[in-house]
Amino acid sequence: LSVRLSGEIDQAGAAVLREKIDQAAESCLPQTLMLDFSGVTFMDSSGIGLVMGRYRMMKTMDGELLVTGASPRVKRLMQMGGLDKLPIFGGSVRPEKA
C-alpha cells in the first residue's frame, strides 16, 4: 500500500490521515506500507506520531513501514523525534551530512 502525503501535517491533518491510512491498511492488509512524504510542505510533532503509530500497526500485521521522499527539514524533525532509530527504509530518515 503506497500513500502519497501532501501539504501540511499538523494535529488536525494527522488525525484525518491516521484514520484514512488505518482504514485502507485494515481493508487490504498490506505486507508493506509506504508513506511518501515528497508532497509534504510542513510537519510538526503530530507527523512523528503519525509515523510511529503506522509503524506499530504494521509491526502487529507482520508487515513493514517505509518512509520515502522526505525533505531535509522533515527528515531532521523525524531524527529529532527518534524515528531514525526505526528500521524504516534503511535509515532513510537520517539527515544527510553537510
UniProtKB/TrEMBL annotation:
Entries under SUPFAM superfamilies matching the protein: SpoIIaa-like (SSF52091)
GO molecular function: anti-sigma factor antagonist activity
Pfam families: STAS
Top-rank taxon, per record: Bacteria
Domain STAS: 1-98
InterPro entries in alphabetical order: Anti-sigma_ant, STAS_dom, STAS_dom_sf
Signal peptide region: none
UniProt-listed NCBIfam families: ant_ant_sig (TIGR00377)
Family stated for the protein in its record: Belongs to the anti-sigma-factor antagonist family.
Annotated protein name in UniProt: Anti-sigma factor antagonist
Annotated organism of origin: Candidatus Faecivivens stercoravium
